[in-house]
Amino acid sequence: MVVYLDFFILQNLIVNLFLLKLTSKIVKLKRKNGLEILAAFLGTIGSTIGLISAFSFLYSTPSKLVIAFIMICIVYNDKEILFQIKVTAIFIFISMTLAGLCLFIEYNNNLVLFDRLTNFSYKKLLVSIMLIYIFAERIVCYIGDRKKIQKLIYKVEINNKGSVKKIKAFLDTGNELREPATNLPVIIVEESFLKDMLEKQKIDFKIPYSVVNGEKGFMRAFRPDSVTVYYEDKVENRNAIIAICSNKLSDVGDYNALLSREIF
């Protein structure tokens, strides 16, 4: 039997990725695309090496179960082993269902749905459908994420010593940062948007902060004359501290500030 290695690798990668994404949908847990691709690639490596006669044992049932479990462990690395075993069982069930569908089509080659499709490869059709699903699922998730982000972006106006800055701020629900002395909520703003204002403003505070990865430090901050937040057809004046951030807060430029949930 002649196997075209490039098509074999691409086909296995697409099928593995499709099965992993379908599994994620069933267990209703969104996973990182990078982890899914890594796991799919690992499964593809196992299938490719198994083509070598000396490693044909990789196509045995125990080996397939182990590879499937490792793939699931990569994707769900933050879950308990019992959960990983359950998801592996779901993954294997989906794989067997797909294999059954392929066998059904293989043994019914004489069944022609359309005369013009007599010589059409059903295997290529299934792989194409899987590829379309992978891209469509990613696009739908991206659009959904964008809509969620837009709902959490508010217009904020900072007024200080006659200087007014209008910015877009993202409501960070995990941000509970407060200035210790005044106990006022902190709004983190990109430094580039406050250059003119900072020329006239003395830095009054240093805000201590810590992030999930353990990084700690201080941010320079000041208290403006007023802060106005526009949301849901409402205009609210709030007392807040403005902290200065030298990093870009949004990779795509959707917003240039982070609102504390304590602001509302």
Automatic annotation (TrEMBL):
It comes from the Bacteria. It holds the Pfam family Peptidase_U4. The active site is at D172. InterPro entries: SpoIIGA. One of its GO terms (molecular function) is aspartic-type endopeptidase activity. One of its GO terms (biological process) is proteolysis. Keywords: Membrane, Transmembrane, Transmembrane helix. The chain crosses the membrane at residues 35-55, 89-107, 127-145. NCBIfam families: spore_II_GA. This is Stage II sporulation protein GA (Sporulation sigma-E factor processing peptidase). The lineage of its organism: Bacteria, Bacillati, Bacillota, Clostridia, Eubacteriales.
